[in-house]
Amino acid sequence: MTVLPPAEIATYRRAGFLDGFRLGARPALLVVDVTYGFTGSRGLTFDEAIREFSTACGPAAWATMPTIERLIGMFRGRGAPIIFTRADTDGQRFTGRATKNKGSSKAAPGYGEFPDECAPREGEWVLGKTKASAFFHTPLLPYLVQERVDSLVVCGVSTSGCVRATVVDACSYGFDTIVVDDACFDRSWFSHCTNLFDMNAKYASVLSLHELADS
């Protein structure tokens, strides 16, 4: 928001974008793809991380991890549903990958494992997906209907990829959706910021964890 020309922001607001959010009575948290395949091991540079896993985001992931951990703790404290997604690499052998990325690291050991900071607990759902959106050909929608979820909070990786695809589909299915900006990360800061702006304008409300906690 600090980079955009004020005149453009004013135009968006006159058109009815950038305003308002609603956290419903029965929200659920979607933690999108926060596995080692998208983080890389702790302490690696970005170049080192992508040598380990071509899809890794490196330092940006680990800088964001404490916020993701606190967000998960918030939902656990409320007893609200939490869904963790990760790539179904076995299914992708038959369906094709989620992007045009040609890297081979997705089959490497540890790719789909969760860092301890955001690891699912027993009884929390780990949803495998073959494409970018957590909704695409998965049982996510009937689960949300069954649980009477009325709004979604989304965090994870990458802001410009699987997070955005999931948020667009959530909006399409009629869910009021909140993206927690400091609990999302991307391999590109520019792409992270641009996609947060677009999601906030069109498909979701973008809030910090602090703003969400105060809501």
TrEMBL record:
Ranges for domain Isochorismatase-like: 28-209
Pfam families: Isochorismatase
Presence of the UniProt keyword Hydrolase in the record: yes
Annotated transmembrane regions: none
Gene Ontology terms for molecular function: hydrolase activity
Keywords: Hydrolase
InterPro entries membership: Isochorismatase-like_dom, Isochorismatase-like_hydrls, Isochorismatase-like_sf
Domain of life the protein comes from: Bacteria
Record carries keyword Disulfide bond: no
Name of the protein in its database record: Isochorismatase family protein
